[in-house]
Amino acid sequence: MNILKQSSSIWVQELVSNLDIFFDQIEETLSQSSSASYFSPMQQFLFTFLSKVLARADPSLDPKIAESGATMLNKWLAVQLLPTISIGTIQPLEEIFLHSFSYPYALVSGDYNNLYNFIKQHGKEVIKSGIEFGLSEDEAIHNLLFVLGFNSYGGFSIFLPNLINTIANGPAGLQDQLRKEAREKGGSTLGFSSLKEMELINSVVYETLRLNPPVPLQFGRARKDFQLSTYDSAFNVKKGELLCGFQKLVMRDPVVFDEPERFIPDRFTKEKGAELLNYLYWSNGPQSGSPSVSNKQCAGKDIVTYTAALIVAHLLRRYDLIKGDSGSITALQKAK
To answer: Could you read off the pLDDT of 246-268 as tens digits, one per residue?
Structure first.
């Protein structure tokens, strides 16, 4: 939380400037082709932006990191996530060969050490903050890399393609409504304060998170015997039992959400929408809740939604029209 507070003064500036670089690349590709795959440049944008705001480390100061930092993070993430996710191969081969053992650190040690040294050399300001909280320099760097690489970069790499796809393929008239709101209520310069007036943009972000949470599964062991109750059932849980939470199921509950399988852009607007935030659990806790040491809710849940809303607002202030999907952009019409 301290890192986020320290970064608040540069967050929007770095977000917008690096977004412009990202979309300049997409426009250049579209000038030569009918389609532009954006996943790789999006990850480069995320790596540069998040390195600057979270670690106060500029990748451009290290040529190797500037060129391959995002790829290094991808390899490190893959080794951690592959044992836990399905890649659609024939069972039980997937379970036997991919999910039955931990992958050796040696596979990514070189890349991780490069990232470690980059943070150590260029992220001294944030490392010092970690030391002030009682961490050693080594612990501070490892924790910072996890927050940067796993929590932030990894989460946004999953979420942003879904959000772009939502904007590009939403219901008829959605882009017109979002564009109107972003331009009329965003002020002369976008900022966190602008978001208070952008009810529909915020709702679209929430609805995208409801249908496609970046981390759909959570696991934990019961610390004591207790009874888990819902509105129609109760389950006795014993100490030590392994529990799994499946967010996609929770947030498609027809008792709570009308037409739960359908994307409804204004679902989280007005008074009823505010009440539904109590049931939006994408961050390992309700959107209306506050992260704490005891509840293990995502510490950056609010900055995630703010950042996503700012991305949507900036996108619709820059362009009159966007077409594409979760992997590529096929048309961008610059604002007149």
So the answer is: 999 999 999 999 999 999 999 99
Residue 83: predicted pLDDT: 85
**pLDDT greater than 80 at residue 149:** yes
Q: How far is Cα 64 from Cα 69, in angstroms, rounded to an integer?
A: 7
DSSP letter for each residue of 73-94: HHHHHHHHHGGGS---PPTTHH
Q: Largest alpha-carbon pair distance within the chain?
A: 62
pLDDT higher than 80, residue 1: no
Residue 13 CA: distances (Å) to CA of 9, 10, 19, 202? 8, 5, 10, 20
- Calculate helix-pair angle for 301-318, 199-211, nearest 10 degrees: 120
Tell me if the pTM is above 0.70. yes
Domain spans in the chain, listed from the N-terminal domain onward: 216-244
In this structure, which amino acid lies at residue 320?
D
The verdict on whether omega for the bond into residue 171 sits within 30 degrees of 0, i.e. cis, is no
Annotated binding site: 298
H or E element in which residue 236 lies = strand 234-237
Q: Mark the binding-site residues for heme, compressed into ranges.
A: 298
Strand duo 328-334 + 226-229: pairing: unpaired
